[in-house]
Amino acid sequence: ARKNIQLFQELVLAKKQWDKAENLSEKTAAATHFEKLLRPLMLEMEREPDLVANPYFRQLADTFAQSDRGIREESQLYNAALSNFNAVVGYFDLLDNLQEDAYLYLE
């Protein structure tokens, strides 16, 4: 039980860290840490049906599940933004190459 209390405390701190993250790299690091901590809890839930029957634990598990979904959604947004950024960078690289080719052709 003491181990689970420590795990819950770490999860709460990890969630607060994610909420306070100001940029994408901080959010990604916090999300990775949170998900790492969440895995043992999910395994414990599968092993302990009485734990799942407890309404307070279910509420806590729902809160963590919502946080996990939020983290996944943020990760998807981050990946989409990164893809868009890479596309723009690729476009400018293409323009630079075309400009260099045009310059060489004119010489």
Report what the structure shows:
This protein is mainly alpha-helical and 107 residues long. Helix content is 93%, strand content 0%. The protein contains four helices and no strands. Helix 2 runs antiparallel to helix 4.
Mean pLDDT: 78
The count of β-strands is: 0
Count of DSSP-assigned helices:
4
Radius of gyration: 22 Å
Head-to-tail CA distance between termini: 78 Å
- Kindly estimate the percentage of residues that lie in beta strands according to DSSP: under 5%
What percent of residues adopt helix (DSSP H or I)? over 70%
- Coarse morphology: elongated
> Stretches where pLDDT falls below 50 for ≥5 residues?
none
Largest sheet: none
In terms of structural class, how would the helical and strand content be classed?
mainly alpha
